[in-house]
# Entry
Amino acid sequence: MGAGPGGYVAAIRCAQLGMSVACVDEWLNRGEPSLGGTCLNVGCIPSKALLESSHLYATSSNDFPDHGINVKGVSVDVKAMIARKDRIVKELTQGINGLFKTNKVKLVHGHAYVSPGKVVNVSDRGSPHTRESLEAGNIIIAAGSSTVRLDRAPITDGYIFDSTGALDFDSVPKTLGIIGAGAIGLELGSVWSRLGSEVVLLEALDTLLPSADKQVSRAVSRSYKQQGLDIRLNARLLSATVKQKKVHVTYEDTRGAQQVKFDKLVVAVGRKPNSDGLFGDELGLEIDEREYIHVNNYCETSVPGLYAIGDIVRGPMLAHKASEEGIMVAERIAGQPSAVNYDLIPNVIYTHPEVAWVGKSEYACNSAGIPANIGTFPIAASGRARAMGATDGLVKIVAHQETDRILGVHVCSAQASELIAQAVIAMEMGASAEDLALTMFAHPTLSESVHEAALAVHNRAIHVKN
Ligand code: FAD
Ligand code: AMP
# Structure
């Protein structure tokens, strides 16, 4: 049930393993059935398409003169940018149709509802009538999540948007407010700020990116500030109303109630699991207090033969986590002893610089009494970063003091999303900081910063004072 990165990947893996598979999905993109769920239609992919376009624009406007490149009259065509994003989404979502065909996955468009006896009833969206019933030996629920809405800031055509709306503006708003400075708020804020909006992010917490390493979070905050992103912490939204073609926002901070006006407002305060309307009480499926379907480490629900994966269950709401759970469940149904390593889920925020981390932070080790050595390398000391003109950030490696095993890696840098994969591979292989230190890295690359941070764990970094 569901053809997002959890469901479609599970369906393909089940088919590869010789099962007869049907995948039911109800997503409509501009009125047309479209596979890929949130990630491909209104999440990972369209946001990265716009981040890429806006980064190119910002680079050409701000950085080209420094490179000795003179271009005149650089301007933004928002409609063309959005059309490019839509084209990429279409190509990729249609690609999944192709993959389903090759793998002989039966695709059923419609709303799925599980009844006792492992029956999936499919209806047309909004219709109470079952159009088709499917009986299955096993059912994987991968119905995903949707945006959390705030009554205090109701979605209002042309003025107050959720993340989906913010991927479809038809012009650059002069002023843009964003409620929530999590990954989604920061990425969308970056897109529109690079294209010329004055962006203010209101964040209820007192720290930016509280799950990231503190040094990384401080480094990236400085970069955001330099880029003109106005991030106000301790700022809790009280109300948002549209008056005289502006969104009037009231929020509360440490000094009391504050008021600010925007041309547009985006609410990006998180996502909630889509566990409503999927089954009735008679099924006996356990749901937790935050409406996630309760599962164990193998994504087994309280009902035998019924599994749930991705955003609809505990853990970070990330596409790669959903897909890995899908593969694990498919393989376990086929009798293989697969498992997901929940300790090594990489987290990435695709701003500039990017922020990425995996494993434990220095702070988490200190709090848990785990003795750790730390190796840090400033990106400014990397020759490649200087050549690129992207010198903000650092790489930090946390290794166990006694075993030297790498416990966590934290990166703030251009292409941190790519650098973090090296850390995940090393940690999956149980590498020590010395293993990385003994590995040869090509010069000049950003990856050398990972090498230098590993050397720094033992105070032997070359291009920085230890
Ligand atoms: P979904 O992708 O939500 O898919 C669920 C599917 O199930 C949907 O197609 C839905 O229509 C269908 N469905 C639901 N109920 C039913 C039903 N009853 N019957 C039939 N079909 C049903 N994650 C990352 O890892 N990297 C990123 O860069 C990233 N960027 C993001 C940017 C934005 C703006 C947003 C909103 C999200 C982003 N995410 C990112 C999160 C990522 O999109 C989700 O974690 C991922 O899509 C979850 O996959 P899923 O398969 O669990 O659910
Ligand atoms: P994420 O959960 O990463 O998608 O980020 C959502 C962010 O929105 C979190 O950092 C929350 O602290 C923040 N947030 C949630 N509710 C509010 C609110 N009412 N006002 C401001 N920020 C909020």
Remarks:
- The chain has three domains: 7-146+272-343, 160-269, 353-456.
- The pocket of adenosine monophosphate (ligand 2) is lined by residues 179-184, 202-205, 236-237, 269-270 (CB under 6 Å).
- The radius of gyration is 23 Å.
